[in-house]
Amino acid sequence: MRSIWNGAISFGLVSIPIKLVNATESHSISFRQIHTEDGGRIRYRKVCELEDREVTQGEIGKGYEDADGTIIPITDDDLSHLPIPTARTIEIVAFVPEERIDPLQMGAAYYLAASGAPAAKPYTLLREALKRSNRVAIAKYALRGRERLGMLRVVGDAIAMHGLLWPDEVRAPEGVAPDAGVTVRDQELDLADALMDTLGEIDLDDLHDEYREALEEVIAAKAAGEAPPETPEPSAPGKVLDLMAALENSVRAARESRGEEPAEEAEVRTLPPRKTASRGTPKETGGKKSTSTAAKKTAAKKTAASAKKSTAKSDQSGKKSAAKGTAKKSAAKSTGSKSTTKKTASRRRSA
């Protein structure tokens, strides 16, 4: 991989010579501008305004246009002597947890390659220190005519650097969220969670650019003189009137696409509003209610009367049995006394 910048990482008093290499590449298909009548290429020529002639790339330099229109030439030598330490140095200024970095700030990604054998030891030291600390390094560097902010982190056995926007370059999300107050019900959140669980995770390596593949098919067909493949008609999205129904259908469709059995889901219905009787409306006093009340009172009276009768009968039977027991006891006592008298009389006669 060709380096696009050479410099050094400043890690305290440690200097690590490195080369900056692009970590990403674009696979998008680019087009040329053509003249539609004859297919001729449309080119932009670089012409000097003073001499009115086309110039080569070697004759082109940099210049700053002042407020009055004056052009001030700036050479590469002028840029290499900028009075800042980051002209050719990636200066580490802090180490912070990776969660502190807002993804909105992240931009282009680069690999930092060790430049030469002397850089191997300090390069490895910085890499292992970042690994063990579970932190990232925040650095400042100059690239393409401006000072930039970067984040250094470990990727495999290499150190990668992500260009960061300056904090004041990230716009606040004002006026983006809906203004109207919206309440989300627990049932809707449950269905949203079920949809996320059904979709699950995915290996990012399985994702690919379908648009580019379709574009390549069209180009190949045109080159072969064939008709381009027909585009399938997209299904027209229906107007979502019920969010709950849309979520349920989404969960069902996601499960079917994965070949899963559709689970039985409870149907969520919206209850009709409860009717409230007006205060002026009198309560119903139909015959059913009065008849029921009278029947209940009559039954209660009958129950009380039968309870009194049974109590009286039990009292009478108790008294009778008590009287019988007393009579039997008195008869037994009299019989005992008679037998005792007879025994006494017989003893006296014998004497």
Automatic annotation (TrEMBL):
Residues 251-351 are annotated as: Disordered. Residues 52-181 form the Ku domain. Pfam families: Ku. It comes from the Bacteria. CDD domains: KU_like. Residues 288-309 have a biased composition (Low complexity). Gene3D superfamilies: 2.40.290.10. Keywords: DNA damage, DNA recombination, DNA repair, DNA-binding. GO terms for biological process: DNA recombination; double-strand break repair via nonhomologous end joining. GO terms for molecular function: double-stranded DNA binding. Residues 340-351 have a biased composition (Basic residues). With LigD forms a non-homologous end joining (NHEJ) DNA repair enzyme, which repairs dsDNA breaks with reduced fidelity. Binds linear dsDNA with 5'- and 3'- overhangs but not closed circular dsDNA nor ssDNA. Recruits and stimulates the ligase activity of LigD. Belongs to the prokaryotic Ku family. Homodimer. Interacts with LigD. This is Non-homologous end joining protein Ku.
